[in-house]
């Protein structure tokens, strides 16, 4: 017997799920959100984006105090790491954020159904032995870590991103399997805190999928910072012993084996859609060959009244992509229209310097046969960057050769994740490089590098 009825039940309270629930409630719907954790916010707030950024920010400051302050006339008298307190800082940030979601649920009169959710029939969701009715069910269960054959994650010596955020001491030697966003961010944290970090990547360059020039520049900078890299290499096994982890590597092309030891191994080779125990088979919800839920352009599955957003469907596994999908779906359910341009979802790597990207890369445009122009400008030639002692990197803007419409922007440098927003907004409205170049940018700011790169598309930068 159903205990309660809702217009919408959202399964999962990560950024996609909780934002969708809030927007549905704002639009007058009766909403419940299912979450099995003790806290709201999903992977992102609890064991992903938020705690990792807390450690990135803290480790950045520690590294600066240790290495850079002296050059700016600041004598610190010896810097000491208190890892326990740094971890407490991370935990307090997580706690504040998750409590914030609880407050928003109460404010918007959203019921939190505590437990694991399972779809048991048309419009029916079971949570902790209770069955609830819903006109619309939205699956927003996110993603889970992926491991490799021959490697078992124990979260002690062989860790996922979750375990890498909880280490009790700085490892002497750390191996990161995977040169993507998560591996580089967490590798950076522990490298700054004193670990010898080696990144092993199967591809021939780090940050797969990003602009090639940016990838090469990032590789060069991270090496200079002390991280080591083994590219075009695969890990065939990793076994924990009493004292450390023994790894076996070989060339991606096959060949001689190589042995390696580390105190901690971080497996960061990607994530997979989390759809287990949702009862999808029993109600006939279709998934693709990668286990993601199939949806149409309105996030609808093949089953009436069942929708899906975020990491469980196709597209980049990014919190802001899930949030936008949640808002658009809520508005569609309310009879409104919504829009997402999937080409304009920015991606950011929160290393130092940051890396950010939106739109198409040169490699993609070449493949598509599109004629384009490129404008680049280095942070080294920017007054504010020099004043900040942050001169690594550049901004690269790519525009259509005929129309001057901006097709992509790729940044490596200070505050890249913030700087990319200007170009993303411009691209949403069809901006040309000249539009950006003719917009007055405050001086002295890092944003002037965006303006100069836009001027450089037309071959007329001013400060280089």
Notes on the protein architecture:
The chain has 464 residues and is an alpha/beta fold. The chain has three domains: 2-145 and 272-340, FAD/NAD(P)-binding domain; 158-269, FAD/NAD(P)-binding domain (3-Layer(bba) Sandwich), CATH 3.50.50; 344-457, Enolase-like, domain 1 (2-Layer Sandwich), CATH 3.30.390.30. It is 32% helix and 25% strand. It is built from 14 helices and 22 strands. The protein has helices at residues 15-26, 42-47, 49-67, 83-107, 161-164, 181-192, 212-224, 280-283, 319-333, 362-368, 383-387, 416-428, 433-437, 448-457; strands at 2-11, 31-35, 111-114, 117-121, 124-127, 130-139, 143-145, 158-159, 173-177, 196-200, 228-230, 233-240, 245-251, 257-262, 264-267, 271-273, 306-308, 347-349, 354-359, 372-378, 394-400, 406-413. The strands form five sheets. Strands 1, 2, 3, 4, 5, 6 and 17 form a seven-stranded mixed sheet that branches. Helix 1 runs parallel beside helix 9 (319-333), helix 3 (49-67) packs antiparallel against helix 4 and helix 3 (49-67) packs parallel to helix 6. The longest helix is centred in the first third of the chain and has 25 residues, at 83-107. The mean pLDDT is 96.
């Amino acid at each position: 017997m159903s205990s309660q009825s809702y217009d919408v039940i959202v399964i999962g309270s990560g950024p996609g799920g909780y934002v969708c629930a809030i927007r549905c409630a704002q639009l007058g719907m009766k909403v419940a959100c299912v979450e099995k954790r003790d806290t709201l916010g999903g992977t992102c707030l609890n064991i992903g984006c938020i705690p990792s950024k807390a450690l990135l920010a803290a480790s950045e400051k520690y590294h600066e105090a240790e290495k850079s302050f002296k050059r700016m006339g600041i004598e610190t008298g010896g810097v000491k790491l208190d890892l326990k307190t740094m971890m407490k800082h991370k935990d307090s940030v997580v706690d504040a954020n998750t409590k914030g979601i609880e407050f928003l649920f109460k404010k918007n009169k959203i019921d939190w159904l505590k437990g694991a959710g399972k779809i048991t029939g048309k419009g029916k969701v079971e949570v902790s032995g209770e069955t609830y009715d819903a006109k619309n069910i939205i699956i927003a269960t996110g993603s889970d870590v992926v491991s490799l054959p021959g490697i078992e994650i124990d979260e002690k010596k062989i860790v996922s991103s979750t375990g890498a955020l909880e280490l009790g001491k700085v490892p002497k030697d750390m191996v990161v399997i995977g040169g993507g966003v998560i591996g580089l961010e967490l590798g950076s944290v522990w490298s700054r805190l004193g670990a010898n970090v080696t990144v092993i990547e199967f591809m021939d360059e780090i940050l797969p999928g990003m602009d090639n020039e940016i990838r090469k520049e990032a590789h060069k900078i991270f090496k200079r910072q002390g991280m080591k890299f083994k590219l075009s290499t695969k890990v065939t096994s990793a076994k924990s012993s009493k004292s450390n982890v023994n790894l076996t590597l070989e060339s991606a092309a096959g060949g001689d084996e190589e042995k390696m030891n580390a105190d901690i191994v971080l497996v960061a080779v990607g994530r997979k859609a989390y759809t287990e125990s949702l009862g999808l088979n029993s109600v006939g919800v279709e998934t693709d060959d990668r286990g993601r839920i199939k949806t149409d352009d309105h996030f609808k599955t093949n089953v009436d009244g069942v929708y899906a957003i975020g990491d469980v469907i196709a597209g980049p596994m990014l919190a802001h992509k899930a949030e936008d999908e949640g808002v658009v779906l809520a508005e569609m359910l309310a009879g409104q229209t919504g829009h997402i341009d999937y080409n304009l979802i920015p991606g950011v790597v929160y290393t130092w310097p940051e890396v950010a990207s939106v739109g198409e890369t040169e490699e993609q445009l070449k493949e598509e046969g599109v004629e384009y122009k490129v404008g680049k400008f280095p942070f080294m030639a920017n007054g504010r960057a020099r004043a900040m002692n942050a001169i690594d990197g550049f901004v690269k803007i790519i525009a259509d050769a005929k129309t001057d419409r901006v097709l992509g922007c790729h940044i490596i440098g200070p505050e890249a994740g913030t700087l990319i927003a200007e170009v993303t907004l411009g691209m949403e409205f069809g901006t040309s490089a000249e539009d950006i170049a003719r917009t007055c940018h405050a001086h002295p700011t890092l944003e002037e590098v965006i303006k100069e790169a836009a001027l450089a598309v037309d071959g007329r930068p001013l400060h280089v």
